[in-house]
Amino acid sequence: MKSIFNFCCAASLLLGFFSCKNNNQTSLPIYGEREAVEKTVDGKKVVDTIYHTIPAFSFLNQDSVMISEKNFENKVYIANFFFTHCPSICPTMNRNLLKIYEQYKDNDAVRFLSHSIDFKYDQPHVLKDYANKLGVSNDHWQFVSGTKASIYGIANNYLVYTAEDKNAPGGYDHQGYLVLVDKDKRIRGAYDGTNDEQVQKLLNDLPKLLNESKK
């Protein structure tokens, strides 16, 4: 199942790469499938492109407060999927994400969103303790939990593989992507959070997206 998902995900990413509005080197690609929609503007029929976007969501955060996509309105943000007792990729992934957070935690244009895939154990107080130990000092980085259907469903929209798997370390299998999302809720990059070169690429790409957002 995972290999099939990864194939589909890779195909979607390739489609997204070629859906970039601007082919110059300073513009980041737009990931995911796109749809051509015909509409009428000033009496003329034109074709507009509808890009894949992150849908509306509602999750409980580490402070037992319900947050939604509205908390990220007009923000660039980085999303990922983890669980607090993960014995494999999560510690490295979130330590690397912390490096980015430390650089941007006082920048009001940037947010961070970590979804726990352990819907059984990772309740708000557990997430709060995890955030504190990690070194998160403000609400610009949200740690959220939800039902299995809601968390795993939103993971699909981020093009990230997640699964409950008793044979996987810690009982859950998932990818360690750090997903860069623009203020229009479009995916603009996916980076391996355990790979230093990929994390550096994210650090290089984030200012480009912030500059784009100002236009």
From TrEMBL:
<dbReference type="InterPro" id="IPR036249">
    <property type="entry name" value="Thioredoxin-like_sf"/>
</dbReference>
<feature type="domain" description="Thioredoxin">
    <location>
        <begin position="48"/>
        <end position="211"/>
    </location>
</feature>
<keyword id="KW-0186">Copper</keyword>
<dbReference type="InterPro" id="IPR013766">
    <property type="entry name" value="Thioredoxin_domain"/>
</dbReference>
<comment type="similarity">
    <text>Belongs to the SCO1/2 family.</text>
</comment>
<dbReference type="InterPro" id="IPR003782">
    <property type="entry name" value="SCO1/SenC"/>
</dbReference>
<protein>
    <submittedName>
        <fullName>SCO family protein</fullName>
    </submittedName>
</protein>
<dbReference type="Pfam" id="PF02630">
    <property type="entry name" value="SCO1-SenC"/>
</dbReference>
